[in-house]
Recover the amino acids of this structure.
């Protein structure tokens, strides 16, 4: 990799360093500051992930922070959208997940659900596509994957 190119996580850290990582209001969360929602409902909004694991990676973000029912609604809507895409033949499957707290990989501390569309063959071991280490397709920026 050239000297002037930065890893995606370095760019992300630079771009988000001035944001409040512990917002009290959904409009102060990074998702709302980065772009406009592709879907804006009274209880949640959907954004395209700014640093997608794969094409079509979306974030379902509840508008209330400490309401388990709202994060449940986000899971429900991500599942519904995923099943619609599967039934239309747009994708073969999908992952829906949540990183809660720093030890689980959360970097912006407003709850949000990741929707990751999947296609056959997008990971080397499809049987393990749901495990933590292989939920995301091979990262081209990971030095270990550089060949």
């Amino acid at each position: 990799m050239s000297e002037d190119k930065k890893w995606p996580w370095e760019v992300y850290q630079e771009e988000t360093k001035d944001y409040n990582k512990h917002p009290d209001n959904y409009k102060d969360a990074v998702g709302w500051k980065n772009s406009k929602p592709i879907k804006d409902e009274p209880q949640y909004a959907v954004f395209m992930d700014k640093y997608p694991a794969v094409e079509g990676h979306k974030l379902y973000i509840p508008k209330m922070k400490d309401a388990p029912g709202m994060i449940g609604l986000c899971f429900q809507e991500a599942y519904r959208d995923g099943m619609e895409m599967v039934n239309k033949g747009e994708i073969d499957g999908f992952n829906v997940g949540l990183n809660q707290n720093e030890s689980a990989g959360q970097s912006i501390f407003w709850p949000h659900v990741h929707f990751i569309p999947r296609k056959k063959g997008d990971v080397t071991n499809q049987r393990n596509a749901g495990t933590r280490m292989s939920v995301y397709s091979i990262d081209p920026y990971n030095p270990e994957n550089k060949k």
